[in-house]
Amino acid sequence: MSGQLRHFLRDDDLNHEEQRQVLELGMKFRQDRHYHTPFAGPQAVAVLFDKPSTRTRSSFSIGVAELGGYPLVIDQAGSQLGRGEPVDDTARVLTRMASAIVWRTFGQDRIEAMAANASVPVVNALTDLFHPCQILADFLTIAQFRGGVDALPGKTIAYLGDSANNMANSYLMGGATAGMHVRLAGPQGFLPDARIVEEAQALADRNDGSILVTTDPLEAASGADCIFTDTWVSMGEEAEYAIRSKPFWDYQVNERVMAAAKDDALFQHCLPAYRGKEVTASVIDGPQSVVWDEAENRLHAQKALLTWLIGQQSDDQTLLA
Ligand code: CP
Ligand code: NVA
């Protein structure tokens, strides 16, 4: 292999042009699920889970199979990682067998350690800090409904709720990479880390986007092209359920929030959703909601991402021509 080893550990591991290329490939996979089979051989892709999953598990498993490969899905309980084997050693083993490693885990430092010891692409399938594959699917969904990938720069996206979680961080970094106007609204104590906002701001400046972090939900939603939310209690935070049910009520996505956005604004949610909490049933089950397309787009976006990463490594640029 003469190309470059690339990982996707956080949204800004792809620059503006690379993100555009992956999303364009995603549109092609949307049109033809068997557009390309980079793993034909077949090669294995290790897909590891330290946390529960429905969409990520199914989209990577089915996606790898559709790319001609063999998904090797390993849960924490069934792996030596779950019994304390070092991440570095796990990486050294998997990298000798699999063509790529996909991992959902807790700390970002864990997936960074995996990548540091792997000679195949490593993909973040959600950490406490980022969920970058979800953002690719979400942007593919905007492209699907709003005139293609070239229509993404300049769009205004608003995320309401827990603005300190992995989804909020990924909207900041991914949206700034795309050249979008990214707005986050959440209560004090649940706003993004200043360092991430600073990094997103620098990216936004470079790509003609902008960043707004506010405690005012309607300021964020006003005139937005797409409204997003997520659970108020992320995986691993279950012990905080009682404290986390109170501060977010003003940030629930309901008809008042949707009325503040553009008339044709889309609603998206990474799922699983808790109706009556972060979003009302009237919105998520209503006419502006595109959450089922969004879930399907996990499949197309991740097939595109894996194809792109493998293409970089093998120096095969033909798909990007
Ligand atoms: N949105 C998402 O990542 O869903 P799962 O937790 O079901 O994979
Ligand atoms: N913020 C949520 C996203 C779930 C897909 C969590 O980490 O649980």
From TrEMBL:
The keyword Cytoplasm applies. Residues 154-309 form the Aspartate/ornithine carbamoyltransferase Asp/Orn-binding domain. GO terms for biological process: citrulline biosynthetic process; L-arginine biosynthetic process via ornithine. Residues 6-143 form the Aspartate/ornithine carbamoyltransferase carbamoyl-P binding domain. Its EC number is 2.1.3.3. One of its GO terms (cellular component) is cytoplasm. L-ornithine binds at residues 166, 230, 234-235. Its main location: cytoplasm. It catalyses: carbamoyl phosphate + L-ornithine = L-citrulline + phosphate + H(+). InterPro entries: Asp/Orn_carbamoyltranf_P-bd, Asp/Orn_carbamoylTrfase, Asp/Orn_carbamoylTrfase_sf, Asp_carbamoyltransf_Asp/Orn-bd, Orn/put_carbamltrans, OTCase_ArgI. HAMAP family: OTCase. Belongs to the aspartate/ornithine carbamoyltransferase superfamily. OTCase family. This is Ornithine carbamoyltransferase. It comes from Bifidobacterium aemilianum. The lineage of its organism: Bacteria, Bacillati, Actinomycetota, Actinomycetes, Bifidobacteriales. The gene is argF.
